[in-house]
Amino acid sequence: MRRFFLHPNQITGKNITLTGTEAHHIAAVLRLGSGDMVECYDGSGLVHTARLERVGREVTAVIVSSRREKDASPLPLTLAQCLLKGKKMDLVVQKATELGVQTLIPVQSRFALAGGDAKRQEAKRARWQRIVVSACKQCGRATPMRITPVTPLTDLPLSAYRYRLLFLETEQHRLLEPIFFSDPGAVLLCIGPEGGFHDDEARFLIEHGMRSITLGPLILRAETAAIVATGLVRYLGALAPVEQKMVHMAGKDS
């Protein structure tokens, strides 16, 4: 079933009105017609199954059923990604959305400057949000990933997170294990830019409670590191309750 995003003010009772890009996509690109069924996401976690009534420059539909979807993860994940050049940041935005990252913080560091004035930065953020919406449609995610304004590395809200992970190419021994996530809590994952972190920056983050972790002996591109690290955290976070249960049962048997 085709998926579309809308604003809550486009819903009146059981009636939906779509205009602009989404209406054009329905009518001119997909060539859907009256009677076709679609799914509409309102950005709050609600998913509406609707039947198209009229298709044109303005598309109307009637809601048949609704359900609420939430990220059930006990480890909500924030990715603090130092700014990358060209289309690399677009790739990270897309894959972070697909991997269930709750919030993306674009980070300005010594080797990753924001570039451009405030208007240009806001235009980039708007493009990233469009990528988020497109990725949500593809993966069936009901609530879009939030993207914050560009944040200087030293202004990251580190104390707001129970788990703070810093993936460094210079770290050789400390691995990420599921038992590391001993209890539910918010996770902050920090990935550097193409040139890596300056030594002073890595020292600052570690002194403020971030735990350095290795991704193995190979040096990964920044965008690859972001995707691999995010996937690991999501996977091992899902395994953590099972691991904790096994440890608890072993303790009872001994």
Write the layout of secondary structure elements.
Blueprint: E1 2-5, E2 11-12, E3 15-18, H1 20-29, E4 37-41, E5 46-54, E6 59-68, E7 77-82, H2 88-98, E8 103-108, H3 118-139, E9 146-147, E10 151-152, E11 163-167, E12 187-191, H4 199-207, E13 211-213, H5 222-253
Helix pairs in contact: 2-3, 2-5
Walk me through this protein's architecture.
The protein folds into two domains: 2-68, Ribosomal Protein L25, Chain P; 77-245, Alpha/beta knot, CATH 3.40.1280.10. Helix content is 33%, strand content 25%. It is built from five helices and 13 strands. Helix 2 (88-98) runs parallel beside helix 3 and helix 2 packs parallel to helix 5 (222-253). It has 254 residues and is α/β, with parallel strands linked by helices. The strands form two sheets. Strands 7, 8, 9, 10, 11, 12 and 13 form a seven-stranded parallel beta sheet that branches. A six-stranded mixed beta sheet has the order 1-4-5-6-3-2.
- What number of domains? 2
What structural category do the secondary elements indicate? alpha/beta
Give the low-pLDDT segments.
242-250
- The CATH architecture term of the largest domain is 3-Layer(aba) Sandwich
Describe the structure concisely.
The chain is built from five helices and 13 strands.
What are the defining features of this structure?
Alpha/beta knot; Ribosomal Protein L25, Chain P; 2 domains; seven-stranded parallel sheet; alpha/beta; single chain; 254 residues; 5 helices; six-stranded mixed sheet
